[in-house]
Structure formats: structure tokens, C-alpha cells
Request: fold
Amino acid sequence: MFKLASLIALPLLTVPALARGVDGQASTQISQSRDAGRLSAERLASVNQLLQSYVDQGRIAGAVVQIQQDGRTVFSTAIGWRDKEARAPMRQETIFRIASQTKALTSVAVMMLLEDGKLLLNDPVGKHLPEWSSTKVAVPTSNGRYDVVPAKRPITIRDLLTHTAGVSYGSGPAEKAWRDAGFLGWYWADRKEPVASAVARMAALPMAAQPGEQFVYGYGTDILGVVVEKLSGMTLNAFLSERLIRPLGMKDTSFYAPREKAKRLAVVYSVGAGSISRAGDPGEWKDGGFPGQGQYVDGPRTAFSGGAGLLSTAADYSRFLEMLRRGGELDGRRYLSRKSVELMTSDHLVEVPYSPGKGFGLGFSIRTDVGRAGELGSVGEFGWGGAYHSTYWVDPRERITVVYMTQLLPAESIDDHGKLRALIYQALQ
Reply:
């Protein structure tokens, strides 16, 4: 298991900021300490060049990257456009829909309840949400249909955290039943129905796999969000705000953008036929439930999705990740115990198939073998991403956190994530 390094106070060499985000150019700040093993300011400049090339080629509208090492921001850049058509430049303070990056905060909330003595990881979900006491599974048949059979065992809290509960995003043999019930895709911000009510209805549908047998990505963390509400007696919005968001100083993280911050919300773009275009409004994407540009501002503000609902900035999310990198503590305040963070960032899949060289913990993908994964990184690294093509990771061995924010859905075959990773790791001295 990795060791979480202590925050080290070191002298910094600050490189003057580059262009201020005018005409789609980057606004960049790079800092570097003088000790060995640190990120090279000179070599990190290639990150800026790469992403500017994607903007110039029309492959993304804009992006924000923030890299921290030992708790210090060593690279921060805002490139391109927050709103290309309005010629509004991207800024470090731009707010993004982070979609499934919300899962990490909800997973931490569950671990907080564990530490509060409110639940155990092996608790059946039905202990806390009675509708989930017994579930069914859709089993494909040779004629293209499916049979419905009882689940072999109850779904547990741990199953939901590891995405081994068999709960999909509406895909699988019983896709039509999920679609008819109003579940297809991850989107909630335009819904008037509270997530708790939707999750209660969901329990009656046939799941995509037996509990504990397959990695099936889906609504599991939304179910966990309802568990948090039930056991805390608070909305998920209130719990996350009180226990994580406000104490961490995540001043621009919320489920819906306040009116006074609406102009800081990035526009969503789509990739098609080799170029990007402004994504459409609700109803234009029938499959997958594309959220229109304004739903996170003008939506009904009743559905707080633990799996995909938050807005945030690169700076805010970096503070959350730094707390995890430090083993659950930041600025003298403890949010989780060191042992809880170790448990969250250990591979829990064991025999369940997953990507080569990777496993999955309690809310994060975990790198278990660098060679098998076939890309630069470290054993013990953990992270995930969001549907709008954002991504993040924490590398405890190199003492770094990385947040990459953009708004691109669908993103198709763009290779920016892999190239960003390569350019960051080549900068390590």
C-alpha cells in the first residue's frame, strides 16, 4: 500500500504568468521547487502547448488544468473559450459540470457515516432502504429476450461503492423496462422528482447482473446518496455542504449554480464529423438524457444526484483531492481517518474482471500494475472522471494531484487524456 507523504514546505521558483486568456490563448501559472524528484516547470510548458493545439484545431473549446505537488499548485492553466460563440475566454475560476466526479464526494460521505457508526460496508442496502431488501436480475435467453430471476444475495453498501451491485445506467437485457420507467443515462438536474423517490422505483426493476459478480457502472452511487440522506437526516446537498464542501473551502462547488455565478458556467460542446459544435437543449438527445445548457441554473433544484450532480472548479476539486492524498486531513482538519482512505484506495474487485493493470476501490479506479496498464503512472494511483470528458487522478508515490476540466459530450475518439498524462509524467525530474 502506498504511503501518504507529509506536506513539505519548500522554496518556490515562480515563473511569470503567460497570456491572460485573451483571444482563446492560455492563462498559465507554473511554480517549481528546487528539490530532486519535482515537476519541471520547463517541461510542463508542453501541456499548455498541447491543449492550445486542440483549441486551435477546433477539437475542444477550452480547458482548465491544475496540478499540485506536496499540496502546492505547480501548474495551472486556462486555455481557449468558456463560450466560444460569445468569445468569452476560459478562466481558472470557470465552473464545470463534473458529472461522475461527484461520486468521489458521495463515497467519502458514506465512509464518514461508517466512521460515525451509522453503517457497515457489508450492510445490505435493504437494511437502510427497505425497497432494496430483495432484488431481481435479468438473465439473457437465446431468443434475444430475458428471464427474471431472484438475486442470489442482497446488494450491499460495498457492492454499490465498487460498482459490483449489477445496477447499470439502464443498459443490459432489461433496457426497455428501465427506459419505460424513465431511467436511461445519468442525468438528473432537469428532474422534479427527488432522487430518493426515483431510487425507490428503481429497486423493482431487473438488474443487469448478480450482486458481486461483474463490474457494472451505473446508478449505484445515486443509491448511496439516498442512504446518506436516510442515515444523516439531511439532504445530500446539506450533508456534503456541511461535512465537506464548506469546510474544505470549495466555494464554487454546488448542485446548481447560484444566479450570480451563472455566467461562469462553461458551455457544453459536442464532437462530430471532426469538429465541435455547441451541444443542444433537452429533448435533442433522446438516448442518454443530454442536459441542456441551462439546467444547472434554471432546473427545479430538487434532484441532488450523488452519482453525477455537482458543479465545481479545478481549484475546488484540487482541494478535495489533496485532502485524500494527505490521508483524510487538510489544513489541520480531519475529514476521514488515514485507515479509511487506505481502504477506499485499495483494490476491492479481487476476482471480478476489470481493465488490465487496474482495479476498483470504494469510489475510485486503482492502478495495480503499471506495465499491464500500459501507460505512465504509479502503483497506488487512484482517480476517475466525468461524462463531460473531465478527469482527475492522485498519485501518492509522486505526491501529485491532477485535475483536467473541459465540457465535451460526446467526446468520441479524442486522445487528450492520454497525452496529458504522458506530458505530466515526462516532466518529473
Summary: The chain has twelve helices and 19 strands.
